[in-house]
Write a structure and sequence with these properties.
Blueprint: H1 5-24, H2 26-29, H3 40-67, H4 73-79, H5 84-112, H6 120-126, H7 129-152
Helix pairs in contact: 1-6, 3-7, 5-6, 5-7, 6-7
């Protein structure tokens, strides 16, 4: 299965959104005196994120190589509704990713002091919905640990 120019562009944009995630959250990951190590739960979220990204991109590349000129968001979305079983999953994905995910990440992100919590939504469109959720949950765990550490230190 060879990668097309469209595949490479899509994956490059996805990687750039992941890079932006680490840039926005550099205080959580690269700050001297910040949170060190990875908790078991946070590590589990990273594992799920990576697995979801790899499997999701595998199927997206397969989709792009199978459908050629038809490839696009509209075509991909139409394929979610080719039968009642896939339509049930498709509508769940659409409501969860396009409506609930942005509301959840922005409101919960603000509540616990996460930076650019709106970023998970566009990142999920270029990577994978499950990847976006898992990365949000990992960063949220890290933010909670940082908040707790700052409380203990009086800052």
């Amino acid at each position: 299965m060879a990668l097309s120019t469209s595949d490479v562009i899509h994956m490059t944009l996805g990687v750039l959104t992941i890079g932006a995630f680490f840039y926005f959250n550099r205080a959580l990951y690269f700050r001297v005196g910040g949170v060190s190590g990875v908790s078991l739960l946070e590590g589990g979220y990273y594992v799920v994120a990576i697995v979801a990204l790899v499997i999701g991109w595998y199927f997206n590349v397969l989709y792009m190589s199978t459908y050629g000129d038809e490839v696009g968001w509209v075509h991909w979305t139409k394929l979610l509704f080719v039968n009642p079983a896939s339509a049930s999953g498709g509508q769940d994905l659409i409501f969860a990713n396009l409506v609930l995910f942005p509301l959840w990440t922005v409101s919960e992100g603000r509540r616990c002091g996460m930076r650019a919590s709106w970023w998970y939504f566009p990142m999920s469109l270029l990577t994978s919905f499950a990847f976006g959720i898992a990365l949000f949950l990992a960063a949220q765990q890290r933010q909670h640990r940082l908040n707790a550490m700052q409380l203990r230190l009086g800052g």
